Amino acid sequence: MHICPKCGSKSSAEIMYGYPDFKNKKLEKDIQEGKVALGGCVVFDEEEQATRRCNDCGNKFDYVVIRSGGV
Ligand SMILES: [Zn+2]
Known about the structure:
Elements: E1 12-16, H1 25-32, E2 36-38, E3 47-54, E4 60-66
Parallel strand pairs: 1-2
Antiparallel strand pairs: 1-3, 3-4
The structure holds zinc ion (ZN).
């Protein structure tokens, strides 16, 4: 369970980075239901990125270092 450290809400979306697959109907549904949020296409190597976004206050949390795996 992911709990927002700011407001204590248990409702948060997973932040996805990279290009979303808009043909993916499940992804589209997850976004509409607030389960998934899009974090944008640019991911900086070795930098901390939030992986959850609170659906109630918009606070981003659960920071992890994401490696794009690119060049
Ligand atoms: Zn919150």
